[in-house]
Amino acid sequence: MHYLRGENMGDVRKNNRTRFLEIMFKYGPVSRSEISEISGLTPPTVTALANELLSEGLVEEFGIDTGNRALGRKRIQLSLVKNSRLVIGVEIGVKQILAGLVNLSGEMLIKRSVMITFKEPDTVIRQTIDLIRDIVKECQDKKVIGIGIGATGLVDSDAGVVRNSPNLEWRNIQLRELLEREIAIPVVVDNNVRLMALGENTFLNHWSEVSGLILIHAGYGIGCGIILNGQLYCGNSFSAGEFGHTVIMPNGILCSCGKHGCLETLASGRAMTSAYRQKKSLEDLEYSKIMEKLLKNAENGEQGAVDILSEAGTYMGYGINNLISLFAPDSIILHGSLFHSEIYTTPVMKLIQENHYGNSERITIKQSQVDDELVILGAGALALQRFLICKIVTG
Ligand SMILES: [Zn+2]
């Protein structure tokens, strides 16, 4: 199966439809004349497109023109029918697969998960297919138009391939093709942290056209997703956002990427649990148990635990200040379990506030209000963009 991007089709009618739908998502409910004003499309074109989308059941009218001046003439507005098209968002994480059915408003109608016991690709892909099929079966006659998948590591979204996922130990897995072979719904894949940024900007930031939004995820590892001028920034070879592998301490600890002193070796959950494991001789405990102990003991005032968290938070603060200097974003979103710890987050915020050169007082910094569902929302948003707004053709 071969896909072409909508914007390359050179088909004016399809491009007009894309523009119309974008406006519906960003500004709806809107009247026909407002759509014409915002888009620059002529009133007859807007009328024709509105009729097309009304007949497809994708939009609806409300606010009837009474024709009675005494009652006040209401302008007829158009709005999206939020459950008329649905997408499935999936996160293939390190420990579990999460999937959800998402509507046009970003509401999650069904959510399912399954634990990953073997990281071997065939097994994980089989589990993913079963999970998607369960959801499709449950939503019966409702129209699922696409599936978005977020996976950890370097993901080539154009090719639909997971190039390298150290956490899953996957290399060059043709994820999109393997899924589409078994499920008759188009699939799009991308990196999980990038999709968090897309989910935040699409559904929580209301399809904002911000000049810059950076979502920083800190848990076991560290990554970031970058939105520039309202669009997800993927970089050359889809490798943008490797914030965890920016070097903060030359000649520091050897990182899994082969460099020394990456932020991930200083400020991630993995780095902190490794330091605490050594300090307290906790060799037998797994990551989540050590992390739990570290956070709890730090909160109870154990100096060794407090030092590990606040030192890691300090490095994270330096890292974020570098991002602010580079991108001068409008908004920074902090996401992940580490940012729930005040001891970790306090030095982060202090360093950002002291960064006057980066104009930090103009930047909105907030914690994401969504935890583990954010990748599902972002994957759903990507599927909506690809398969509804910029409609993709198969050939
Ligand atoms: Zn590294």
User: Helical segment tally?
Assistant: 12
CATH architect. name of the largest domain: 2-Layer Sandwich
User: Which word captures the global form?
Assistant: globular
The first-level CATH class of the largest domain is given as Alpha Beta
Beta content comes to 15-25%
Biggest β-sheet description: 5 strands, mixed
What helical percentage do the residues reach? 40-55%
Spatial separation of the terminal alpha carbons: 7 Å
Uncertain runs are 1-9
Number of strands: 18
- The total number of structural domains is 3
CATH level-3 fold name of the largest domain = Nucleotidyltransferase, domain 5
Average pLDDT value? 90
CATH superfamily of the largest domain: ATPase, nucleotide binding domain
The SSE order reads: EHEHHEEEEEHEEEEHEHEEEHHHHEHEHE
Strand order of the biggest β-sheet:
7-6-5-8-12
- The whole-angstrom Rg is 23 Å
**Bound molecule kinds, no repeats:** zinc ion
Give the structural class.
Answer: alpha+beta
Summarize this structure briefly.
By secondary structure, this protein is an alpha+beta fold.
Task: Describe the protein.
The chain is 40% helix and 22% strand. The chain is of the alpha+beta class. The protein folds into three domains: 3-80, Winged helix-like DNA-binding domain superfamily/Winged helix DNA-binding domain (Arc Repressor Mutant, subunit A), CATH 1.10.10.10; 86-198 and 374-394, Nucleotidyltransferase, domain 5 (2-Layer Sandwich); 211-367, ATPase, nucleotide binding domain (Nucleotidyltransferase, domain 5, 2-Layer Sandwich), CATH 3.30.420.40. Helix 6 crosses helix 12 (374-389) and helix 8 (269-280) crosses helix 9 (287-299). The longest helix has 25 residues, at 303-327. Zinc ion binds at residues 245, 255, 257, 259, 262, 264. Residues 245, 255, 257, 259, 262, 264 line the site of zinc ion.
